[in-house]
Amino acid sequence: MFESFYGMTRTPFSRDIPTDHLYQSTMLEETFGRLNYAAQRQMFAVVTGDCGTGKTTAIRYFKECLDEAKFTVMYLADSKLTPRHFYKGLLEQLGCEAKFYRGDAKRQLHKEIELMQGIHHLQPVVIVDEAHLLDREMLEEVRFLLNTKMDARSPMSLILVGQSELWERFQLQTYAAIRQRIDIQCKLPHMDRAQMGEYVKKHLTYAGVEQDIFSDNAVDEIFRYSSGTARLVNKVCTHSLIYGSQNKRRIIDDHMVKFVVQGELS
Ligand SMILES: Nc1ncnc2c1ncn2[C@@H]1O[C@H](COP(=O)(O)OP(=O)(O)OP(=O)(O)O)[C@@H](O)[C@H]1O
Ligand SMILES: [Mg+2]
């Protein structure tokens, strides 16, 4: 649509941007460093942040950077996860058919993990995304993964990823047993204005555009609308590019962004 008008070779602000073209914010690097540490030492990590701040993207980046010869990553993102589906999902990712009963499936998973470590020398990393949607029973079940051998040694690294409310829940007394076991915590903030400017540039570079399309004032306006949330930045930029191309405007200014926000996004 707008790509040919702006001479783009790829679509910017898309969800499927390859990890080697991501905006390398200090936040992304820091999250990666912490998760890498958690994976090396089989720790329990929790990643939280407001919706659209880039948690799943950070996980995607982490997963692709991990050494495949050392780690096996299992990733689940299912808001309606039940304990049975949890074990089934993990076992399927290990290429196993899960036993029917939850207790059997759980033992089966622990056995597979022991084999993985003992024979193949691979460390398991379990990632549960959208964890803020899980109920307490399910969160406890996930946490029990770490609880074999009488808590003496964790059999894997576990990473829970969820919106900020997950962290707020962990502050409640009923979640104390989980909270106390958290080794590493990552909170993803919103981008500030300067970071967001770099983020927009990075997406345009990925699309093959070197010149600026958004004026400085337009970027201010994008920041006002998005508060530095990546998904909202993507949305307002995409809508502005569509509008700009339809009106044959090479440069998108703040008035155009305002018009798009008021007309289409508010
Ligand atoms: N570092 C980055 N570089 C480029 N694009 C990014 C980056 N981080 C996030 N994005 C973009 O922002 C969008 C939203 O990010 P993501 O889906 O990771 O957010 P989230 O925090 O997981 O949201 P939710 O809480 O709704 O699951 C992604 O589709 C991606 O295109
Ligand atoms: Mg996500």
How would you describe what is shown here?
The protein is an alpha/beta fold and 266 residues long. It folds into two domains: 26-188, P-loop containing nucleotide triphosphate hydrolases (Rossmann fold, 3-Layer(aba) Sandwich); 192-265, Helicase, Ruva Protein, domain 3 (Orthogonal Bundle), CATH 1.10.8. 49% of the residues lie in helices and 12% in strands. The chain contains eleven helices and five strands, in the order H-E-H-E-H-H-E-H-E-H-H-E-H-H-H-H. The protein has helices spanning 26-40, 55-65, 83-93, 102-118, 136-144, 164-170, 176-181, 193-206, 216-226, 230-246, 254-265, and strands spanning 44-49, 71-77, 123-129, 157-163, 184-188. Strands 2-3-4-1-5 form a five-stranded parallel beta sheet, with helices on both faces. Helix 5 links the parallel strand 3 and strand 4. Helix 3 runs parallel beside helix 4. The longest helix is centred in the middle third of the chain and has 17 residues, at 102-118. The protein starts with 25 loop residues before the first helix and ends with a helix. The mean pLDDT is 94.
